[in-house]
Amino acid sequence: MRWLAVVVLMMGAACGGPAGSAAGRSTSSSPSTTAPALASLSGHAFAASITEADRPPTPRLVGSYTLELRHDGAYVLRGPSFTARGRYAVEGGRITLRGDDHCEPSDDATYAWSIVDDRLHLIADATDPCDRPVGGRQFVLTATAWTRSQPLG
Predict the structure, then answer these.
(1) Bridge partners, residue 88, by sequence
(2) What's the CA gap between 23 and 18, in Å, rounded?
(3) d(Cα 138, Cα 153) in Å, to the nearest integer?
(4) Most distant CA pair in the chain: distance in Å?
(5) Can you give the three-state secondary structure of 62-77, one letter per residue?
């Protein structure tokens, strides 16, 4: 059994570690925006659709969405029945959302992100505090991949 743990650790180190591992995290104590990560996200709009097949916690979440990650650190999430605005910061493979106008001021949430074939994939680091009472931001952001739709001016 010990050899299995060694093999897993060696594979994680060789691959740069999984997104949730200590090897993949920055040791910086304050969030910052790293240039390559920011360039991949900042100034882009992404689109996604949630269908009944995604099994949303409430039918009101079915529909088309856009996520704008603006150059100035602001984000806009538009859905069929709402528009949410807030701030974001990128640090390596993590994006933190802050100050969403539909959430409590302290409802920051961090997501691991990756872009594969112009499709943004988000995975919550923990339960998003702005996901109450019946689901919302976390479900919308993680239910499906987001397609890069257009650069923002």
Answers:
(1) 97
(2) 7
(3) 27
(4) 54
(5) CEEEEEEECCCCEEEE
> CA of 137: how far to CAs of 84, 100, 108, in Å?
9, 10, 11
153 residues of the chain, pLDDT tens digit each = 333 332 223 333 333 333 333 333 333 333 344 444 556 788 999 999 999 999 888 888 899 999 999 999 999 999 998 888 999 999 989 999 998 888 888 889 999 999 888 899 999 998 888 866 545 888 899 999 999 987 787
Which residue reads 């409430």 in tokens?
58
Sort 7 into a burial class: Cβ within 10 Å, 0-12 / 13-18 / 19+. exposed
In the chain, the DSSP E strands lie at 44-50, 63-69, 74-78, 83-91, 94-98, 109-116, 119-124, 146-151
Q: Which domains, and CATH codes, for the chain? A: 31-151 (2.40.128.640)
pTM score of the predicted model: 0.71
